[in-house]
Amino acid sequence: MTLSFWKPGTLGPGSTLDRVEEGDASVISAPPTDSRERLPIFKHRQKLLYCVENYGVSIVVGQTGCGKTTQLPQFLLEAGWAGNGRVIACTQPRRVAATSVAARVAQEVGTSLGEEVGYTIRFEDVSSKERTRILYLTDGMLFRELLVDPLLTRIRRKRPELRIIVSSATMDANYFLDYFTSGSSSPSTEAVIISLEGRMYPVQIAYTEEPVPNFVEKAAQVVWNIHMQGGQGDILMFLPGREDIEMCLEQLAERLPSLPKSALQMDIVPLYAGLSTDEQLRAFSATEKGRRKVVVSTNIAEASVTIEGIRYVIDCGLVKIRVYNPSSGVSSLVVVPASKASASQRAGRAGRTSNGGIDDLMKFEWISAPPAETILKAYDTLCLSGLVTDANVLTPVGSKVAECPLEHNIAKMLFASKEFNCGEEDVFIIPDGAAGALAELERRKFTAEEGDHLTLLNAYNAFVRYGQSLSWCKSHALSFRAMSRAVSIRSQLKKYMHRFQLPIKSCEGDAKRLRQCLVSGYWRHSAKWMPDGTYLSVHGNKKLNVHPTSVLFTRKPRGSWVIYHDIEETKQLQIRVLTEIEPEWLLDYGYKYALPH
Question: Can you give the residue ranges of the Helicase C-terminal domain (predicted)?
């Protein structure tokens, strides 16, 4: 498949916001859009098409809300750039952005979602290879395309007919221009910067006079004050994390009984990554007459997302990010002040299979290079896992693992299932997080003494056995969304197993074989039980605590050794999803992959 692609920043009418300091609550108001033609990008249409025709790379800079994400693909479609089997592909930073924007553009084009306009995200493809001409996809899915079609690697040098559009409201355009023209034989025609002047509506910005001691409480109060002032328009609030959102929802819910009968009714909707696609799309639904929608969101709604009817944006000025320490291998979630670029994006939400051509990652032409220590750590991990050779070449199994949309250790385990005859069970442990929020009493019905992986497998098998029923999940304190997602992911992973001729056999209840297979993928995530009830990691000698949701939280493993799914730092280092193992398995089924053959 031929791909013409670019990376836009945002959509939806709005404006920029100056630096927001920690503790500030900012209120931004702007009327919603009522016509596509009013978008500022329309007056630049001919200039855009000229640049795309005559330059390999077009760098588009425009205010949030000018129409970059929604209209550029349509301009190119109408100009014939999707002819001859080509696809106009537009990368998005998050799943919710890809799905919501695709739905909006499909409506504007006048087609059903999945036909002429579609989207593809991990484990979900709503598009047609034959009919889709505008495709919205996450960055990760574009990487998948690079593996399937290696001509996309260093594409402009190998395929001059391909066009790239990089667009955002907050990027340094000259930085990208230097990158794309560096080393080009004809830099004057390789890349060009296009400035889209114009703003949809004037924006009013207000700040708190000084930082507040409790930003969640203050944000909820600001929402309530806006609501009680009357007037039309929905509200979008940005908070750092899920816990803050739930706390804010509670505070707003407590105020609802005191709402005057003459006031608009308030619909409070959360928006964060842990919600299902359907739950996330609630934030984008039209608001009923006589009601006001309040969307309380993390930075998931920061870029490339338009929520129709938003008139006010309340920004606490904070964001929760995941920080990875390559030395310790530990990731942690920290709350930090939002950057000026992020604040600008937030304000704009108102109204509106082959090896690559890369032989040495240390010499790769990054736009913004990651720390060298991070690259070396990743390379070391891949080498020890037997996926990359010392000569920087993918091993045979490494090439196959690279094609699977999974973490490398889980994919490695998938291929090892052939050796242990447990392919039927092995593919279950993929869903994000635990595959069900089990209440303690109900969880005991599924508990396996060997640990969490088999406990989750028991819950999954029971879910399938009893008809994948929502009512059954409720009666057993299981998450129907998580279980259904596990079924969907399992079905898709089976396609990869068929492709690589991996036998889908059951271990027939042989927990030993299944746990040995787990070791083949998780051998670097191993730890030994200590007398004080904690664990000591094999790699790094870190003191680890068991997450309270684990079935091994209050008891010692029989063999003193476990493997775990992941490790996270909150107030302490915690490991989640544990399974008991025998220490000799680490040598037999884990470290042997790191040894020369």
Answer: 218-395
